[in-house]
Specification:
Helices cover 49% and strands 15% of the residues. It is α/β, with parallel strands linked by helices. The chain has one domain: NAD(P)-binding Rossmann-like Domain (Rossmann fold). The protein has a seven-stranded parallel β-sheet with strand order 3-2-1-4-5-6-7, sandwiched between helices. Strand 4 (93-96), helix 4 and strand 5 (142-147) form a beta-alpha-beta unit. Helix 1 (23-34) packs across helix 9 (225-236), helix 3 (74-88) runs parallel beside helix 4 and helix 4 (111-139) packs parallel to helix 6.
Length: 255
Amino acid sequence: MSRFASYPSLSGRVVFVSGGGSGIGASIVEHFAGQGARVGFVDIDEPASKALVEKLTAAGYPTPLFTKCDVRDIAAYQAAIGEVAGRFGTITVLVNNAARDDRHVIADVTPAFWDERMAVNLRHQYFAIQAVAPGMKKTGGGSIVNFSSISYHTMAPQLSVYQAAKAAVIGMTRGLARDLGGDAIRVNAITPGWIMTQRQIDLWLTPEADAALMAAQCLKEKVYPPDIARMVLWLAADDSRLVTAQNFVVDGGRS
């Protein structure tokens, strides 16, 4: 028996996750499937996404619907969201997870780079909300979870454009929580700390960085994707039914 919570309100609920093929997103998809939810997700990594679908199906969970899609293409992205709603029913949980934290220096940033980074880290979140909000209104409410980043709290170097986008997520979350609250749609944000995805481990987890992280965190354990996924589950479930316009930092007490 799992030591973690099970949420009856998530069984059969229709959930959409961006960037669900690997890392934090894959853990979110897996956790929702484990709760009996019907999950649709998009990603640009087709092999990893298909492998995830096969893994969850083999485990006896409801088979997720994967669509290869680049969230920077808003028309294609909203069409993918519509496909999930057409297949499973009204989406009442949206998880805006997709992002990319490529390093950059000020001198190399061009207007095109700025626009592309905003497209992959911020813009798609708004237009996903635009796509699901009408259905949520008609069905009596829903839960939207947007992803920010601890990097702008900690002032991590060479991430200024990414940080601008992720700081903006918090303002967008609060504004939309007000706009949508009258229709019982809750909008919250999660700010993850340094999460030990395979990408982060491969690219940046040196012994020196590991030691600095443990010195900075109150809790002396690394944070992994399931730690974020479980927070998402709570925000999606009826257990958090009167929680909105909030930002939940999951970083082991680093910031």
